[in-house]
Write a structure and sequence with these properties.
7 helices; Immunoglobulin-like; alpha+beta; single chain; flat
Length: about 350
């Protein structure tokens, strides 16, 4: 869900729109200065503003924050509407198509689905609007930073370039793509020593960069009173395999995930050590803010795998996911129920 949400809230198109207007004639560092009788000759710097803008740390953190909040709101909508829709669907199937009760239930079902889609659209629209506001703020602070760094090095103008045109779009043979690239990067040739992209990138990381890493050190079983029990066997390590299973848990049982937060390789302190947990999907149990997970008493309808996600409180782009396979109360594998057709 979240990868789709982040993709939907992507800023590439917004970047291109801003860049087309801001850099079509270059970034004049003396725009606010009083005109002089004998202006200095132009000394031009070059910067790959699009790549810097897309990777600007504060904007990325806001993008993940907005996506996470929207995802949680969508999950709440799903949880709220699922019983209602299922009940109406069951009511509709109780009657034959030629009976009035069938059509009455169908109308109520369509109304519920329309309301469901409307609420989801409202969440998505609000997220898009908030991201746009954050992107504009990011553009402004990044533009000012580029201007300051260029001015301090004696430049009085900055032109935008695209260092890696193949990353702008995949279909490079598409003429419209070429037109787009020329619009945001009209520079055909420049001397590399005047490219200040890496200088700007280093300053961005110094000012706004973070290096928060989350890992789950271990999982402990919990007894009926919620006290720590034996450590659970970890079935997989690392995040390379997205279909992996990290732990197994019986329906109705509880476990506690021990999270380690690193800040630039050292144990995080203060607010940088904060993280919160969420579980994905409906009917997937509950998890507390400190990582205590309670499996559902009944298996989810279409899967036996539950994904639990920890997210840094100061850097929402830093996440750690754990996949738990649910077993029945006898410790045996559960056969997921197929979705009704």
């Amino acid at each position: 869900m979240q990868n789709r949400m982040i993709a939907a809230l992507g800023v590439t198109a917004f970047c291109i729109a801003l860049l087309a207007g801001a850099f079509a004639a270059g970034l004049n560092l003396k725009a606010d200065a009083q005109p002089t009788a004998a202006p200095n000759p132009a000394k031009v710097a070059y910067v790959d503003f699009l790549s810097l803008f897309k990777d600007e740390p504060q904007l990325k953190r806001e993008q993940f924050r907005v996506a996470a909040e929207a995802e949680e709101q969508l999950r709440e909508i799903d949880v709220r509407f699922e019983p209602r829709v299922n009940a109406l669907e069951a009511e509709r199937k109780r009657w034959e198509p030629q009976q009035q009760q069938h059509w009455d239930a169908m109308k109520k079902l369509l109304d519920a689905q329309r309301e469901y889609n409307s609420e989801r659209l409202r969440v998505d629209s609000a997220a898009q609007a908030e991201l746009r506001t954050q992107a504009i703020a990011s553009f402004s602070r990044l533009r000012s930073l580029v201007a300051d760094l260029a001015r301090n090095r004696g430049y009085n103008q900055v032109l935008n370039i695209v260092q890696n045109p193949e990353k702008v779009a995949e279909a490079q043979e598409d003429f419209r793509v070429l037109q787009q690239q020329l619009l945001i990067s009209p520079v055909i040739y420049f001397e590399k020593e005047h490219d200040i992209t890496e200088i700007v990138k280093a300053e961005i990381n110094r000012l706004w960069g973070m290096d928060i890493k989350l890992t789950v050190e271990k999982a402990l079983s919990l007894d009926a009173e919620g006290k720590d029990g034996p450590e659970l066997k970890r079935l997989a390590e690392g995040d390379d395999n997205k279909d992996r299973v990290d732990y197994e848990a019986r329906l109705g049982s509880s476990l506690r995930l021990v999270l380690v937060v690193k800040d630039k390789g050292e144990t995080a302190q203060g607010k940088n050590a904060g993280a919160f947990w969420a579980r994905l999907g409906t009917r997937s149990g509950e998890i507390t803010s400190d990582g205590k997970y309670t499996a559902p008493t009944e298996a989810p309808r279409d899967t036996d795998i539950v994904t639990l996600r920890a997210r840094s409180q100061v850097d929402p782009s830093s996440i750690c996911e754990i996949r738990v396979r649910l077993l029945d109360k006898d410790g045996k594998r559960i056969e997921p129920v197929k979705k009704p057709e």
